[in-house]
Structure formats: structure tokens, C-alpha cells
Amino acid sequence: EYDGERSSEGERHGRGKARLPNGDTYEGEYQHGFRSGQGIYRFKNGAYYTGEYLQNKKHGRGIFFYPDGSKYEGDWVNDQRHGYGVYTYANGDTYTGEWSNHNRHGQGTYIYKDTGSKYVGGWANGIQEGQAELIHLNHRFKGRFLKGNPVGRGKYVFDIGCEQHGEYIPSQQDKGEEEEEEDEPSLLVEPKWKASEITKLTLWTPHGENPPSPRQASLVTAEAGAAAEAVEE
């Protein structure tokens, strides 16, 4: 059913309302028979999209409210999340950053609501990959990720003023098949962390300023034991 403006050729053109055969509804702009321009599309399952269309496809800026309570607000290309956008998940987690073909892809920040932890760095096809920081309440990990897990050399930086350097060694554990849904990344770390040394913080200082004294450095190293034990479980 359609109620709205038409062109001289009889095509849906201008503003109108439509009820589709599957029970979905659309209210918004049309161009030459296609949903094009601003509109609101409501799915019979309760989900709805409000934003820009181009030839019946979500294209441009728009907000999609999913049936599980999650929401995406950002760029769309050819019915896909593509460009820059913010996804709020049903559990309260959020991802803010780049998207490609419906997946988290490029640079982005994922915040875990329950713990307050934050992943800031690279993504590839929805999975954590590339240089990144995993920031926790009182310490952070800086290194490289591959297929959702830290890999190779990196360091933990502790708020008490020290760094623990080391590397992640691949685990032999079989994880099994992974789910293909658009889901929240896990904070669980499969590879084994192998620490190599503890140092004072490597701070950037403008040229000409004096670095910390040897006494300050030794105090920092002395305080590092408890922090190191927290990581080496």
C-alpha cells in the first residue's frame, strides 16, 4: 500500500508512506519509485532505521535501532555500516571508529562497560588487529594484536611508575570454531605473557630537560614487584 506523492509518470516521487508485503513500513522521501532521501523504515520485529536512503538502500548518515536494544549511529554505504560510526551494544559496550562492509575495520576505540577497560587501536574485519593499547583501571598494555589476541613484544605500563617489558607466546590451546555474528570482543587473553625486564617509565621530555635521577629510577624499580606479580598469573 502506498499513500503519497507521485511523478507525472505515476512513480512514487516526493514524500509518502508505504506498507510493504512483509509488514514493514516506510515513511519518507522517494525519487522515481525508489526510497531516496530522508526516511524512517520500521521492521515488523521492532527494529527501525532513520536516516538517508539512496535507491532503496541505506546510504549516507543514519541510525539503526536493533531488536536486542543495540544501536548504530554513523555512515552507511549500500546498506552496510561503512565509514565512521558509533555502535552501542546490548550489554552497554561501545565501539567508536571506522567501519568497512558492516565490520569494525581501521582505527577504533572499544569500551567495555562492566570493567571500564578500553581497547584503542587497529581492527581488521571486526577483529582486534594491529598496533593498540588495552587500557585498564591502573595499568595498560601497549603492543600488537593479531586475530583478537596480543602477539609478540609489548609492555605493561603501571600507574605506580614502572613498565614491564616482555612478549606474548602463542598458546597451544585449541579454541574451536569462532562465532560469525557481530559480537562483543572478549577481554580474555589466550597467549602466555613472558616478562623480560622492568624499567622506569619512558617519558618524552623536551630537549634540554634533565631526565629522572638514578635514585628516582631505583625507587621505581623497587616498587615494581607487586605490579609484576599481578600480570604473571
UniProtKB/TrEMBL annotation:
<dbReference type="GO" id="GO:0035082">
    <property type="term" value="P:axoneme assembly"/>
</dbReference>
<feature type="compositionally biased region" description="Basic and acidic residues">
    <location>
        <begin position="1"/>
        <end position="13"/>
    </location>
</feature>
<protein>
    <recommendedName>
        <fullName>Radial spoke head 1 homolog</fullName>
    </recommendedName>
</protein>
<keyword id="KW-0677">Repeat</keyword>
<feature type="region of interest" description="Disordered">
    <location>
        <begin position="167"/>
        <end position="188"/>
    </location>
</feature>
<keyword id="KW-0206">Cytoskeleton</keyword>
<feature type="compositionally biased region" description="Low complexity">
    <location>
        <begin position="222"/>
        <end position="233"/>
    </location>
</feature>
<comment type="function">
    <text>Functions as part of axonemal radial spoke complexes that play an important part in the motility of sperm and cilia.</text>
</comment>
<keyword id="KW-0963">Cytoplasm</keyword>
<keyword id="KW-0969">Cilium</keyword>
<dbReference type="GO" id="GO:0005634">
    <property type="term" value="C:nucleus"/>
</dbReference>
<keyword id="KW-0282">Flagellum</keyword>
<feature type="region of interest" description="Disordered">
    <location>
        <begin position="1"/>
        <end position="27"/>
    </location>
</feature>
<dbReference type="Pfam" id="PF02493">
    <property type="entry name" value="MORN"/>
</dbReference>
<keyword id="KW-0469">Meiosis</keyword>
<feature type="region of interest" description="Disordered">
    <location>
        <begin position="204"/>
        <end position="233"/>
    </location>
</feature>
<feature type="compositionally biased region" description="Acidic residues">
    <location>
        <begin position="176"/>
        <end position="185"/>
    </location>
</feature>
<dbReference type="InterPro" id="IPR003409">
    <property type="entry name" value="MORN"/>
</dbReference>
<keyword id="KW-0966">Cell projection</keyword>
<dbReference type="GO" id="GO:0031514">
    <property type="term" value="C:motile cilium"/>
</dbReference>
<dbReference type="GO" id="GO:0051321">
    <property type="term" value="P:meiotic cell cycle"/>
</dbReference>
<dbReference type="GO" id="GO:0007286">
    <property type="term" value="P:spermatid development"/>
</dbReference>
